[in-house]
Amino acid sequence: MKQLVVFLAILIGLAGFSSPALADSTANYSITGTYSAGTLSTALSGAGESFAMNFSLPTNPVALIADLQLGDDFYVYPLNVTYSFGGSTSTLTSLVAFYAATSASQPGGFFVDYCVNPTCTDNLEYQWTFAGPQQYTGNEDNPTLVPTSFASNGQGFTIFNNTTNAGSSSSFNSTVNGRPVSTPEPSSLLLLGAGLAGLAVLIKFRS
Fold first, then answer.
1. Is the model's pLDDT at 207 over the cut of 90?
2. CB 172 within 8 A of CB 36
């Protein structure tokens, strides 16, 4: 019995060590929204029409940062955004910027920018603003994302025609659902599984 108690103590300790041993966490965002009256009708937008966005990125996206401004924001590019509108779904290779709550550019939240032409030198460029709670901790050169959910109402939506540099501005209402997801490393699961198997053998032996 004493050996069993010792073994159980070791197993609990191993399980405790395996819990924090996680692979890189992922920040997942899912967004639903409705464009306001006066929104330009395009393949991706329309007055009174609903849309949905989904994207994921590591909670420590250091390798994805293309540009940053300390104390204000950092940019992630390229990031694939799944976009649903008008009964169809497409993948938009986008730039996403995350802002500090005290940013002069945008108070918290994030910003999504998509160019139909990857060079953004001609054709249409779409910009969605999702102002809200700050979505990260730490400095902009080494941020940790802490995704949260929030309502984003009356936010700016702008379509630029970069051929003539003209823009069409409107707004939209949306609900942002942000959540982190962590996946245990395979080694942690194997460690825990081995411990459970050993416990089963010991119990059988003692019986």
1. no
2. yes
